[in-house]
Amino acid sequence: MSTLTLALDLMGGDYGPSETVPAAAQALSLLPHLNLLLVGDIEQCRDLLDAFSLSKHPNVSFLHATQSVSMAESPAFALRRLSDSSMRKAIEAVAAGQANACVSAGNTGALMAIAKHVLKVIPGIERPALMSCVPTISGGRSVLLDLGANVNCEAENLRQFAVLGSVVAEAVLGMSRPRIALLNVGAEANKGNIPVRTAAELLATTPGLNYCGYIEGDALFQGAADVIVCDGFVGNIALKTAEGMVRLLSSASHQQMKGWAGWLQSWLTRFFKRRLSHLNPDQYNGASLLGLRGIVIKSHGRAERSAFTNAILQAVVEVERQLPARIAERIDALPLNRR
Amino acid sequence: MSTLTLALDLMGGDYGPSETVPAAAQALSLLPHLNLLLVGDIEQCRDLLDAFSLSKHPNVSFLHATQSVSMAESPAFALRRLSDSSMRKAIEAVAAGQANACVSAGNTGALMAIAKHVLKVIPGIERPALMSCVPTISGGRSVLLDLGANVNCEAENLRQFAVLGSVVAEAVLGMSRPRIALLNVGAEANKGNIPVRTAAELLATTPGLNYCGYIEGDALFQGAADVIVCDGFVGNIALKTAEGMVRLLSSASHQQMKGWAGWLQSWLTRFFKRRLSHLNPDQYNGASLLGLRGIVIKSHGRAERSAFTNAILQAVVEVERQLPARIAERIDALPLNRR
């Protein structure tokens, strides 16, 4: 495999092929060197593939899958019973070396369970984490994890997430000595629950990590830290709350006025939207399942084509930066297993 | 005690008397029938009290306290060692019937510990919760709890929070059969951690509660539910994240331009702020410690005078609606203790 190939799960997400197929075409037009392995019910997608000139595209190959994983499916069922699902076959293509990474907008729990089973975790990592590079108000980026892969975490898991996030901050965002913070309910040392307080002690004594303390929810997106660590329950709700606020505030919620006032109103709404555009969740769609021996990108289930394209681009960056190898190297150098 | 009297902790919060004293004056000008018991280091506050014409105000009395609880103090230390703190004496004034409610911008953990010890909880309630009536995009309100009083919760605690929140929705917001939701990482039944999933089962089978299922972070502030229940760790971070977004988006973050462009820019910034004004956290400052045999309102530690005034007004509403009595009545009628 000399060129860069991505396996795309065509069937995942709320919209399935109607958004993933156009996104594939968009990614190919942006990156002509890219190769795509499209995984799903190819017959069902035929008309869309023809419409977007992908059926006979030289950079596109196909892998037929008879099943798909629904959003409500239990991870255990998806793992044990849906062995011919598009999600499973896309991940297996990565394990078999047919693709450098895979991208899916499907069920997060199922993606996590199948990826962990098929690809295995990097030695020293107990649990993979879902990570996103979120925008900051000043135009920068922060690494935020876990975003929902682990709804219960121990302190050691949080420490490992800090290591994973630091490698991303260095390898993907080009930072040196990224500032690590734990998301907590207060800045003082006595605040928070036991896992967070214990993680603070672990992080402060782990060599090679630039741990800077706690930050609160209102400091997210302010660039107060480069790597922000929390358990998956909290991270998922914090990120979705912030995304919900951006969407609410940038939507034209006021009643449409008439005449010149209506013109002014729509102009102001556009101004408003542009001002928020760099915080738009679509811009940074594409969360990474970190800690695996392969690259798996999770797109938001409600992603439309341009957002799904951004998830594809995130996969390309991680392949180019050889993220799993860099994580393995760093984990190997750290005394993480001396608990 | 025939009139309405509130005990104010003058020393709490990041700014102490410099904001609480002006807020007291503002509240008295808004509600001339209100009586205030100002608790703190009265000598230290003398100049401010004179400046705001409160020293000899007919509706104002004073209670001197030699100690104050700092924001970094441990709740246990504040409870056991600071028996002459302004926070403690303000709560004791409620217990003694000298005041109908108290308001403090001080350390949340200490306020919770002292209030629970001095006022006691309503029978049937295991743990009080911190609740706020947050705005929705359409101009309504939702009850959100817990906001940080309990960083670890079991399912039964979450169920009790749902009952507390329902009473507030009915008594304060005037709703009938308020819709109750649990904040979770997904809408499907198999999502979330054990306490949340178990709470969902409990809520669905508790008579008299209108439980409607899970909502995700992006549905907060959309009015998707009237009562939104979560543990204090998650609620604190979700609310602060949302508040941080509103502050970020309404601040003039762009570089100031010159000439007519600068004029247009500042005009647009004002437009932007006005559009967000009903989501401004200051508008709904004043979280209630629910489940106690008395009314305790927690103001945000960073509250300035007008925000602290809103916390005082929240206390007045809860006194008028006799919230603790209504909660006790509801708890008594529910089979909450048959675990």
UniProtKB/TrEMBL annotation, chains A, B:
<protein>
    <recommendedName>
        <fullName>Phosphate acyltransferase</fullName>
        <ecNumber>2.3.1.274</ecNumber>
    </recommendedName>
</protein>
<keyword id="KW-1208">Phospholipid metabolism</keyword>
<comment type="subunit">
    <text>Homodimer. Probably interacts with PlsY.</text>
</comment>
<dbReference type="InterPro" id="IPR003664">
    <property type="entry name" value="FA_synthesis"/>
</dbReference>
<keyword id="KW-0444">Lipid biosynthesis</keyword>
<comment type="function">
    <text>Catalyzes the reversible formation of acyl-phosphate (acyl-PO(4)) from acyl-[acyl-carrier-protein] (acyl-ACP). This enzyme utilizes acyl-ACP as fatty acyl donor, but not acyl-CoA.</text>
</comment>
<keyword id="KW-0443">Lipid metabolism</keyword>
<keyword id="KW-0808">Transferase</keyword>
<keyword id="KW-0963">Cytoplasm</keyword>
<dbReference type="Pfam" id="PF02504">
    <property type="entry name" value="FA_synthesis"/>
</dbReference>
<keyword id="KW-0594">Phospholipid biosynthesis</keyword>
<comment type="pathway">
    <text>Lipid metabolism; phospholipid metabolism.</text>
</comment>
<dbReference type="InterPro" id="IPR012281">
    <property type="entry name" value="Phospholipid_synth_PlsX-like"/>
</dbReference>
<comment type="similarity">
    <text>Belongs to the PlsX family.</text>
</comment>
<dbReference type="GO" id="GO:0043811">
    <property type="term" value="F:phosphate:acyl-[acyl carrier protein] acyltransferase activity"/>
</dbReference>
<keyword id="KW-0012">Acyltransferase</keyword>
